[in-house]
């Protein structure tokens, strides 16, 4: 039975409130895979794993933005999240790109495009949240990592322009290179992620006298 969208949002909100710090920490320090697993699968697992999938699934909730911007001890890992995702994506990009062009027979069509799209989508959300952070902020992607990331985003934007990978690469590239029309959208999205425009409680459409909830 398919769960209605509003009910899914309730589940995601509750899940984020309970497990978001643990999700981030487990992504940053994923468990070791058994020794008989091939090295390339271990490398892929460092980026594409259940923790990244669930972080991405709850990244639209107000808890995500609030947690990453908070000073609580559990949020320390949040400062490393964007750099870690970008770093692992850049390291894995040549392998992902090669397999996009020549997919192995044991993977369904589009698997590796999706494997790149999910972390890029998360990076786009993180760039929205931290759009006003200074260049030397611990939240921000290091310059050397960003330079390599931009190169891959340009490749995937050009090659996959009509697919989701192409669109999310284009948007993230626009954020990193500060394209004016993209940055205008980013500031509007930041307000939504921080619940400055509408109440964050699922089903509530209140837009005035909003307050930040500590939980």
Briefly note the structural class of the backbone.
mainly alpha
Largest sheet: none
Q: In percent, how helical is the residue content?
A: 55-70%
**Rounded average pLDDT:** 84
Q: How many domains would you count in the coordinates?
A: 1
- Beta-strand portion reads under 5%
What is the number of beta strands? 0
Order of helices and strands: HHHHHHHHH
Poorly predicted ranges (pLDDT <50, ≥5 residues)? none
Keywords:
215 residues, mainly alpha, 9 helices, 64% helix, globular
In short:
The chain is mainly alpha-helical. The protein has 9 helices and no strands.
Task: Provide a descriptive summary of the structure in words.
α2 crosses α5 (78-101) and α3 (50-58) packs across α6. The two termini are 30 Å apart. This protein is mainly α and 215 residues long. The model has no long low-confidence stretch (mean pLDDT 84). It has helices spanning 5-28, 39-47, 50-58, 62-69, 78-101, 111-129, 143-159, 164-176, 180-193. It has one domain. The protein contains nine helices and no strands.
